[in-house]
Design a protein that fits this description.
The protein has 150 residues and is largely without helices or strands. It is built from no helices and two strands. A two-stranded antiparallel sheet has the order 1-2.
Length: 150
């Protein structure tokens, strides 16, 4: 698959690329380098993003639901307002990532490195937290469990 003349696939070298608003539904970007990339509003639903490097990337408002981000590098990534519903982030590195207002309904965060991440206003209902490291995270306004009576 090519977008703007750039090959999109496993192991792709997309550092600092601007893929904002692109529809990459179901794409296989296993092991791809997307560090510093701009993916604002990008659709990555059902994508295979295992071991991909999104360090410092901007995925604000991206739709990433149902994707596999196992062992992905998202250190310092911007995921503000993104929809990660049902995604697998097991063993991913999200240290210092900004997930403010993100929808993390039903995600798998088992053994994630999350220290210093911003989860303010994020929804983590039905999320599997396993052995995730939430040390020094900002959690103000995050929704972790159903409110009584709902």
């Amino acid at each position: 698959m090519k977008i703007n003349g750039v090959e999109i696939g496993p192991g792709a070298l997309l550092s600092n690329a601007d893929l904002s608003g692109q529809d990459l539904t179901g794409a296989d970007l296993t092991g791809a380098r997307l560090d510093g990339a701009r993916l604002r509003g990008c659709i990555l639903s059902g994508a295979d993003l295992r071991k991909a490097d999104f360090s410092g990337a901007d995925l604000s408002g991206a739709i990433v639901g149902g994707s596999n981000l196992s062992q992905a590098g998202l250190r310092g990534a911007l995921l503000r307002g993104s929809d990660l519903t049902g995604s697998i982030l097991a063993q991913a590195d999200l240290q210092g990532a900004d997930l403010a207002g993100a929808n993390l309904l039903g995600v798998n965060l088992d053994r994630c490195r999350l220290s210093g991440a911003n989860f303010q206003g994020a929804v983590l209902l039905e999320a599997y937290l396993g052995e995730a490291d939430f040390s020094d995270c900002k959690m103000n306004g995050a929704i972790l469990a159903d409110e009584p009576g709902n």
